């Protein structure tokens, strides 16, 4: 199945419009963004009425929201040395889990870094570990999966690094949601094999972000102009049982953005369809 990252569409569109456009472009579901902006974080406090209306919209349009990219922890990180911020991070986590439960979202992608706007230390890393354990127990209560995103920072830029937390926390509700572009860049940094790294997470990868990158550049790289081998990446992920993929790219004001959605879907779906032949 192929999901569409919400930010690939203009932010001012309504949910109904976004879902209709995603369906028309032949996507199977949409990934909701809860980033660090006040507008997106406010979604965590949606009223019951708003939640029900969104569920009805999903059913009416015929395409669901099934994953959530929770990048709001960049501003309120789980490992922050500021206790008010780290407590806020857990509050955000709990609200996100409850929202996911209400909307039928299966997997929440969580950022694989202890802190972002402050220096990482042994204390922030320890606090991150302890708060992830708390978050996993929250998720277990509602039956929601939490998947680490492999990031652009060295703290958790590979699947292999994420596996340290998977093994030590040891919960079926914690897994990995790798970013194809980020692990590709990490492989250049360490001189390692990106496909071996992906396979190191066998049995623990919930989904895969299909994102293009260039050496040292992690965002807003158009598909086909970077260095990610999507065919080999998807083939490797497929071989270890991954069946859900999300195209991660951003709307940048391009007037042909709807065509981009369709063309990218066709490109990735062609690769996936070959896996089932």
CATH superfamily: Divalent-metal-dependent TIM barrel enzymes
Oligomer: single chain
Coarse shape: globular
The total of helices stands at 10
Radius of gyration: 18 Å
Instruction: Walk across the major sheet and give the strand order.
Output: 6-5-4-3-2-1-8-7
Q: How much strand? A: 5-15%
What structural class do the secondary elements suggest?
alpha/beta
How far apart lie the N and C ends? 15 Å
SSE arrangement, N to C: EHEHHEHEHEHEHHEHEH
Protein name: L-ribulose-5-phosphate 3-epimerase
Keywords: Isomerase
GO molecular function: intramolecular oxidoreductase activity, interconverting aldoses and ketoses; L-ribulose-5-phosphate 3-epimerase activity
Domain Xylose isomerase-like TIM barrel: 20-260
Describe this structure in words.
This protein has 277 residues and is an alpha/beta fold. The mean pLDDT is 96. Helix content is 46%, strand content 13%. Strands 6-5-4-3-2-1-8-7 form an eight-stranded parallel β-sheet, covered by helices on one side. It has a single domain (2-275), classed as TIM Barrel (Alpha-Beta Barrel). α1 links the parallel β1 and β2 (29-34).
Salient structural properties:
intramolecular oxidoreductase activity, interconverting aldoses and ketoses; L-ribulose-5-phosphate 3-epimerase activity; 46% helix; Xyl_isomerase-like_sf; alpha/beta; TIM Barrel; Sugar_Epim/Isomerase; 277 residues; globular; 10 helices; isomerase; eight-stranded parallel β-sheet
């Amino acid at each position: 199945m192929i999901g569409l990252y919400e930010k690939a569409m203009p932010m001012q569109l309504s949910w109904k419009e976004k879902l209709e456009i995603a369906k028309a472009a032949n996507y199977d579901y949409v990934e909701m963004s809860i980033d660090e902006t006040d507008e997106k974080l406010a979604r965590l406090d949606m009223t019951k009425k708003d939640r029900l209306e969104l569920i009805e919209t999903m059913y009416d349009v015929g395409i669901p929201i099934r994953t959530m990219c929770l990048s709001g922890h960049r501003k309120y990180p789980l490992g922050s040395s500021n206790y008010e911020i780290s407590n806020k991070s857990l509050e955000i986590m709990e609200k996100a889990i409850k929202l996911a439960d209400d909307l039928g979202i299966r997997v929440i992608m969580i950022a694989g870094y202890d802190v972002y706007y402050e220096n990482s230390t042994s204390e922030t890393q320890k606090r991150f570990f302890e708060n992830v354990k708390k978050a996993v127990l929250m998720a277990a209560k509602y039956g929601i999966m939490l998947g680490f995103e492999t990031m652009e920072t060295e703290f958790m830029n590979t699947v292999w690094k994420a596996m340290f937390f998977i093994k030590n926390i040891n919960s079926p509700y914690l897994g990995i949601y790798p970013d194809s572009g980020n692990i590709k860049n990490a492989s250049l940094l360490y001189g390692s094999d990106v496909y071996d790294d992906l396979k190191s997470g066998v049995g623990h990868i919930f989904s895969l972000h299909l994102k293009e990158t260039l050496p040292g550049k992690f965002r807003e790289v158009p598909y086909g102009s970077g260095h990610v081998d999507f065919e080999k990446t998807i083939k490797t992920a497929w071989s270890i049982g991954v069946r859900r993929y999300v195209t991660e790219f951003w709307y940048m004001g391009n007037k042909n953005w709807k065509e981009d959605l369709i063309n990218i879907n066709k490109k990735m779906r062609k690769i996936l369809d070959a896996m089932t032949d």
